[in-house]
Amino acid sequence: MVLQMRFDLATHSLREINQTLHHIDRRPGETFVIEHPKGTHSVAVGLTEPIEVTIEGHVGYYCAGMNKNASIHIIGNAGPGLAENMMSGRIFVDGNASQYAGASGHGGLLVIKGNTSSRCGISMKGIDIVVGGSIGHFGAFMAQTGRLVVCEDAGGNLGDSIYEAQIYVRGEIDGLGSDCVEKEMRPEHKTELLELLERACLSVPIDDFRRYGSARNLYNFKIDNADAI
Amino acid sequence: MCGIVGLYLKNPALEPRLGEFVSDMLEEMGDRGPDSAGVAIYRNPAPAGGSKVSLFSTDPAENWHTRNDEISQALDVEFSVQIHASHAILTSAAPVDEVNGWIVSNWPDLRIMSIGTSIEIYKEKGHPKDVAGRFGFKDFAGTHAVAHTRMATESAVTTEHSHPFSTGLDLCLVHNGSLSNHNRLRNFLARQGGQFQTDNDSEVAAGYLTWRLSQGDSVVDALKSAIQDLDGFYTFAIGTSNGFSVLRDPIACKPAVLAENDDWVAMSSEYRAIARLPDAKHSNIWEPAPAQIYSWERSSSGNGASDAL
């Protein structure tokens, strides 16, 4: 028997639902569904248990923020600040996501099947982000570690002031940011990319992907640049 | 922060419900800014060659019928008056310039909120739910509307500083964001003959568009110039007599969502406002790209022509 607990945001308060999910006494195999989100903010934020949550509809700001261990599937679009500061777990979005998706994430996997807009993966710190469509400008701005995969195009200033994160883009890029350069796609990168696409359940040929990362001129201290401080 | 909404109806059967839809959307955006709220609604055009003016009085005992008689006699044209709380709409066959000139000269105690042929503007201090209730927005029929709920950051909280701002015929603008070069631009526009009622930055954006249109620009061309000349953060929704447009600045920090289906085009700061509309979930929903002009216009041959330019 499939065990499923359903929450309706039309009749239950957001706080009630989130708190229940925080302190869930889960029966084996039980999954959770949130209905009628209608663009509500902060849905399924701060989850810490390894549970599966499905959200049936579009969500507003900050959905799935600070996620740890949980798998969250959004059947719809997500507003700004999706999966902000995610620690671990998996978040899948069937539609598009707005600005700064996956910002500051420390770990886990964020998959957006559609497009995202500006600042996707800003300051990422270990999260893996896979985007089936395109991303807007300033993707992976100041990204420290982790991987950002973009199956279509990327907006301007990609990877500006990037540290050690890896970026893979299949389509066109409207300009790289400061200190972001194209890098050689070696066999280990192809393996890494294949593995990420497989985990994201996206079947996209990897031949056209190119790799980008830091030229390491900006964030290393160099005595010659001391005057610039 | 501020919240903005716009709704353009493609299906005339929905026109009687425009006010209800826009009130719902604006109320949903109320927690983005409860300082003041306002709506510009396009409906009931004045007779050909005539005019419609939205007036605001600070006097709670204002006698609009006396005012109406006074202007009717002075201009020797019959005016009709519709009263909504502190605002009144005066419609007549008298031309725009004549009406505007007479009001400015004879009623310095009143504020002209808008002037044109089909635009009406209502705005007041307070939460959008209260403001909408005071004016009775829910009962307004119309073809399209833009509306705003304000969190004041740039200038005072007064009725005059509320959005929408209208500085030209049938043109209005609502703004989420803040402009950096509005003082210098206001001075420049004033030298070109522009008139401003407040020190608000968004009024300058409206004045800028009015100036470009007076130079012969189309709305789209005026917005293209705005991308070059306005410095700051903005998501704009702009209403004209036959359409509405949306523009975000090139950095695009301020949020915006567009949605379209066979019946309507909607714009809002957040999707949850659009979610209040019929069949919103199944409409085409997207985030407007930075520095891209989106425009919908009702042509004489039909309506719903849309363009992303």
What is the strand arrangement across the widest sheet of chain A?
A: 1-2-3-4-5-6-7-8-9-11-10
CATH topology of the largest domain in chain B: Glutamine Phosphoribosylpyrophosphate, subunit 1, domain 1
Please report the distance between the alpha carbons of the first and last residues of chain B: 27 Å
**Number of distinct helices of chain A:** 2
Distance between the termini of chain A: 64 Å
* CATH architectural name of the largest domain in chain B: 4-Layer Sandwich
**Rg of Cα set of chain B:** 18 Å
Instruction: Tell me the total number of β-strands of chain B.
Output: 17
Order of helices and strands of chain A: EHEEEEEEEEEHE
Question: Beta-sheet strand percentage of chain B?
Answer: 25-35%
Instruction: Provide the domain count of chain A.
Output: 1
| Pair of chains with the largest interface and how many residues each contributes | A-B, 20 and 17 residues
- Number of helical segments of chain B? 8
- The CATH superfamily of chain A is known as Glutamate synthase, alpha subunit, C-terminal domain
Structural class of the helices, strands and pairings of chain A?
Answer: mainly beta
**What class, by secondary structure content of chain B?**
alpha+beta
State the assembly state of the protein chains. heterodimer
Per CATH, the class of the largest domain in chain B reads Alpha Beta
